[in-house]
Fold this sequence. Notes:
This protein is an alpha/beta fold and 354 residues long. The protein has eleven helices and 17 strands. Strands 2, 3, 4, 5, 6, 7, 8, 9 and 10 form a nine-stranded parallel β-sheet that branches. Strands 11-12-15-14-13-16 form a six-stranded antiparallel β-barrel. Pyridoxal-5'-phosphate binds next to helix 9.
Amino acid sequence: MRPLLARISSAALAHNLGVARAAAGATRSWAVIKANAYGHGLARAARALAAADGYAVLTLHEAAALRELGIRQPILLLEGYFDAGEISACYELGLTPVVHHAEQLHLLERSARSGALNLYLKFDSGMNRLGFALPEMDQVIERALALARGGALALMTHFATADETAGVAWQLAPFLERARRHRLPLSLANSAALLRYPDSRADWARPGIMLYGASPFADTGAAALGLRPAMTLTSELIAVQEVAPGEGVGYGLSWRPARAARVGIVACGYADGYPRHAPNGTPVLVAGRRTSLVGRVSMDMLAVDLSGLPQAGVGSPVTLWGEGLPVEEVAAAAGTISYELLCALAPRVRVVEG
Length: 354
Ligand SMILES: *Cc1c(COP(=O)(O)O)cnc(C)c1O
């Protein structure tokens, strides 16, 4: 069998939720499991994160799958409903849609459904992505109160720079200035804000990446935050090449060793979700030792430098990321973030739990 394998640790997921809950104190947490739980599997993650106060997903399809699994916790739909049919589904499945745009209020006004519907009203406090403008808050709440028909309202916003030096204060202050008057529950913090800015915890936090054991920060690793990697992507060397000086490796021969080199070929490529743009030097573990990616990543394979690893040969274990090699380090070397690597894990990769 092709040796590429993603091992997903339910124990690590549960542990990381514990870290989030400890950081949250009395604040409740939506476990963010959108994008197939950042590549970890929706159902698997939902089970492992059963201690969460609620789950946040993107699509109705994901929410329906969670209800089919028997999940009773509240479910937050992060972009809300897209049409009238989805409003009905929100009632039937007992979901809490985010309402971020006037068009969604129109849809709800025209909906034939009656009864209570919990709503999360999203405001844009500076990210300029989703949400009503802050000065519209009073009117939006007034309209939504009528539409929720007794359902609970909450106010949310999202931070653009919680993981960067700019922090959250520049968004938090103007948001709270308006929101506090309404005495409604507030939901503000993603992982980075939850970990770094206690004053942004509010009533409900929305941790995502930290649950999967990756650090949201460039300057602090996951281990220092007490997090454990939930996904470890492993494979093996399936061939070894002796490369003479002047020769090159892979498509375009983009890596040309100055001296004779041994190169290992790993069964993992961009069709498995490994980033094709990862450059020479991206870290890879072979038999527990750190070495480097060399040459271009192919669809099904990549190459590593074995020059310092004379014992390594066909069958030697390889870790692409996870235990022993933080995914955020691999991501940084490839010029991206851990989120993208985790989400991109391809369906063809075998997944085992443990
Ligand atoms: C994805 C998402 C989160 C989770 O963010 P992390 O950085 O993964 O913790 C929180 N809130 C919203 C609105 C999101 O879209």
